[in-house]
Amino acid sequence: VPSAGYVRNDALPAVHLRYPDADIIERTREQAGVHVRWIDMLAVMTGHGDEALYYATDHHWTSLGAYRAYEAYCAAAGLSPVPRETFAVETVPDFYGTNWSTAALWLTPPDALEIWTDPGLSTVTTIPEANIVKEGMLFPERLAEMDKYTVFLDGNHSYLTIENPEAQGGTLLLIKDSYGHCMAPFLAAHYQKIIMVDMRYYRQSMSDICRDEGVTDVLFLYSLGTFVEASDLAFLR
Description:
Elements lengths: L3 H4 L13 H12 L8 H6 L16 H15 L10 E8 L2 H5 L8 E7 L6 E4 L4 E4 L23 E5 L5 E8 L2 H9 L3 E7 L8 H8 L3 E5 L2 H4 L10
Parallel strand pairs: 6-7, 6-8
Antiparallel strand pairs: 1-2, 3-4, 3-5, 5-7
């Protein structure tokens, strides 16, 4: 997923250096080869005009940005996306993200964090390392903390699962950074089980997961900023 700086190049100061996202992503696509089905996130994230696809005070995409990516994934995977009007949207004010706290953007006004919920979806989230088994995918108690983005799936964990017994699809292995936390709730409508792995903290074999869990689909989802620094991808096997 390209950075907000690349997508919103029009908002950068005149003296700012050009973001090289397109060059890096194209080089990555070439190296991935013909056995990987590539989703052109440059086209997705630059193709929706003035929509707020990224936060101003945080490095993550918004729920709308994740929904646009979800639509693109569905198109590539032959799925019908849940219509946007299906979701109930809760708007949480006064969201100050990581950019605000690390770059001393004290005069930048806060964002509004949107939480999209499908009222007809029933799921169970299991986080083994935290001994958590709960209904749903949201952790509303996290909204009382500084980093409200952790409302999505309780923030960073090495391994977790989302189960939806009413889904028609099989099992999705989602290899991701924290951008995946906001997108997984959309994907849950289509899979009986989603296995989410964060390779910054997980060192077991992805091939073993695919074999042992009967994985039917694999989605690799990283923000470009994390991807270019991800030495842990050497363990992808």
